[in-house]
């Protein structure tokens, strides 16, 4: 206890916390140790730890007035105003002349009333309007008529069962039971006689004749074209003859 009080006096809160935690572990029924631990945690900003230690102190000794003071202070920091007021009122019951408790109760009652008035003044949050969902637009594209569907359908046939309505538009006509072009020209018998037989005929090509063999030239020179020959003997004979004539 003495070491813990010394640490609190020197505001060595971490050391004091360790010392008082050690103390409550050794003497868990000592309410003052829990109250002092609540004070240390309060100074360190551990509001919930401070509340828990003070609550334990009141449970260990319900007549220990200081435990209710520490409990009220921690609950105020946690903004649990009604509980803080109840803790201070419990302290007044044990010590009716305690001015600190009375002042704290007056302050808490005022805060609670202010918050209550504020809640009444604030208009209730309007409920979110739910609008009906817009109908989904169809993503299907309208079917378009194909070129085939735009073609004229057969509406009627002529007496021969050959033409459709569109055939007349295109200019077809029938000759000898056959559908022909509108520009088809049928020849008379006289015109056919004058023109004669103009049907295409196959051309007959004569068979190639064997090339006549040339009497002159080598065996392979059938066409008789010029070819180089060995005339050495002829030249020698002609030269000797010319020399004899000159002598």
Automatic annotation (TrEMBL):
Residues 117-158, 203-225 are annotated as: Disordered. Residues 145-158 have a biased composition (Basic and acidic residues). One of its GO terms (molecular function) is Hsp90 protein binding. TPR repeats lie at residues 65-98. SMART domains: TPR. Keywords: Repeat, TPR repeat. InterPro entries: TPR-like_helical_dom_sf, TPR_rpt. This is Uncharacterized protein. It comes from Cyclophora tenuis.
């Amino acid at each position: 206890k003495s070491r813990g009080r010394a640490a609190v006096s020197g505001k060595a809160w971490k050391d004091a916390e360790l010392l008082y935690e050690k103390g409550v572990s050794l003497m868990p029924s000592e309410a003052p140790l829990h109250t002092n631990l609540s004070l240390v945690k309060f100074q360190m900003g551990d509001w919930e730890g401070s509340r828990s230690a003070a609550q334990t102190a009141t449970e260990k000794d319900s007549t220990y007035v200081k435990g209710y003071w520490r409990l009220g202070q921690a609950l105020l920091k946690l903004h649990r105003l009604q509980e803080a007021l109840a803790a201070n009122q419990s302290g007044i019951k044990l010590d009716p002349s305690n001015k600190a408790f009375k002042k704290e109760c007056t302050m808490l009652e005022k805060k609670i009333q202010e918050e209550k008035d504020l809640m009444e003044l604030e208009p209730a949050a309007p409920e979110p309007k739910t609008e009906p969902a817009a109908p989904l637009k169809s993503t299907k594209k309208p079917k378009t008529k194909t070129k085939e569907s735009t073609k004229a359908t057969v509406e009627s046939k002529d007496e021969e069962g050959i033409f459709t309505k569109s055939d007349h538009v295109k200019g077809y006509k029938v000759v000898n039971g056959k559908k022909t072009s509108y520009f088809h020209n049928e020849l008379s018998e006289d015109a056919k006689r004058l023109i004669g037989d103009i049907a295409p005929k196959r051309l007959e090509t004569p068979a190639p004749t064997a090339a006549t063999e040339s009497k002159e030239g080598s065996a392979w020179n059938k066409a008789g074209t010029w070819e180089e020959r060995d005339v050495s003997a002829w030249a020698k004979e002609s030269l000797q003859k010319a020399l004899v004539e000159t002598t």
